[in-house]
Write a structure and sequence with these properties.
This protein has 100 residues and is an all-alpha fold. It has three helices and no strands.
C-alpha cells in the first residue's frame, strides 16, 4: 500500500477540521453522543476526500533505441531513370468480369 501524498494529507485534514466545525455549529449539539457522531462523520468524509485525490502519475521515460545505420555516401539508384517507367496495363485486365 503506497504512502499518502502531501496533498492527500492536507485535503483530508482540512476536510476533517472544517466539516467538524461546520457540523457542530449547524447542529448546535451538546451531547456526547452527538459530538461523537459528528466526529465520526467528519473522519469518514476526510478519509473519502483523501482517497479520491488523484495520485501522482509515474514518469514514463522513453527508451532510447539505436538509430539505424546511415552510410556516408548516398545510395546509388538501382536502375537508370529511363528504365524506371511503368508499363501500361492492358484495357482488358482492368475491366470487371460482370461489366457490360
Amino acid at each position: 500500500m503506497p504512502r499518502p501524498t502531501a496533498a492527500q494529507l492536507a485535503y483530508g485534514s482540512f476536510t476533517v477540521i472544517f466539516s467538524t466545525l461546520a457540523m457542530l455549529l449547524l447542529s448546535q449539539t451538546s451531547s456526547g453522543v452527538g459530538i461523537a457522531v459528528i466526529a465520526f462523520a467528519a473522519l469518514a468524509l476526510g478519509l473519502l476526500v483523501a482517497m479520491t485525490v488523484p495520485l501522482p502519475r509515474s514518469r514514463i521515460v522513453a527508451q532510447s533505441q539505436p538509430a539505424p545505420a546511415v552510410s556516408a555516401a548516398p545510395a546509388a539508384p538501382t536502375a537508370p531513370l529511363a528504365q524506371q517507367t511503368e508499363e501500361p496495363v492492358p484495357a482488358a485486365a482492368t475491366r470487371s468480369s460482370n461489366a457490360a
